[in-house]
Amino acid sequence: MYLRSKDTYQAMQGAFETYLRINGYSLRFAVRDQLLAKAFFDQTSNEIHQKLSRGQYIPVHWSVEGEPFCLSLWKRIKSVMEEVKLDDFKLICLFAATIAEVFHELEPSMCSARFQSLLSMQLIPLEEDRFCHSASVYEHRLLKFFPFFGPRHSYTQSLFNDTYYVPSSSVKQFAYFDEETYQIVRQAYVMAIDNARSQSILSAEDVSILESELKTLRDKHRLLMIFQSDKRTVQYLVKQIMDRAESNSRFYEAPNYVDDDSSGPFWFEDINIQSDYRWYSAFQMMNIEVISDYSFEDYQSRLAGNHKMNCNEEDAVLFGSMFISKLNDYGRDNEYELKNCEEAYITGKGEFGYVLTLPEAIEQAYIETLSELRNSVITQLRLLSRKEASHPIYDFIPS
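Above: the chain sequence. Below: its structure as tokens.
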């Protein structure tokens, strides 16, 4: 769970204040702000606002308590909320309602869950309390999903990369919740999904007819959630692709027209792949690709793993193919513009064109691929749902 924007934090403040007011508590804004910041993030409200202003992501802070180790918010909540005389049941409801309001903004996997629920698609159900795996200790729970119960459909897939939910901001890959924290997270999940289902836009009959199309739409939407356009993800992918490209350029087959007795080196062996505008010609001469579409399986696995999200290989290869097509387009445009630049320099006529280094081309191709994928999701959603772009479901499509 990561807080990524001021809008999300304001929505949390609104849900927090509403529940307190309904239960007869009217606290000053500054007090509520401090309580919320400390309970969820273990920081002051000033620290929260400053970090959000700098574009930083703020993790929900999970304490690791007890034996076996379990994730907990409860001990800190009880301490922070000591002056607000709410009983344990109301405290659990307060913090569940606050998370539920923005669960889809804190966790990309929950954005996928709400998107599917708005389309009336069935999700793998939560285990009932009597099935909850607790290692024989009732106070330690997993928020577990049970694929063998509930309705089965050809499109149904796990939201997470396992059968249980672990927050993406957790420092542990596998962890129980303490009893009260489990109740908060479980109740928040149920509230978020029930809210989406109450606003669903397709009938059960529509879903049964459109199962294949809805699965494709869900998979494309999930790709958008994994390959996001935020600065951190873009920088990660540019670095990974550049590292792979530089590695590929060190090992290549000599062009078949080159004489075996040639002493070399050839011009393309000495260029700086990072900064030389002739990168496309160089890779063509070396008879290698900048990157393979199958490399995106690794990138998707890493990015999805950061969010504890489920993913599949076919989606990554699809995204990779779209990306490589656009990267090659930029490479060919470079060659055309470089030729025009050369002619303009020699003749003194014409204009110098706009060319891109390989890192710049990678970033532009990535952003353009995301844009094309997003437009595809919007178009398909409009065709299936017959809802205009003003409908709230479009808010769940990342920009």
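Residues 231-396 form one domain.
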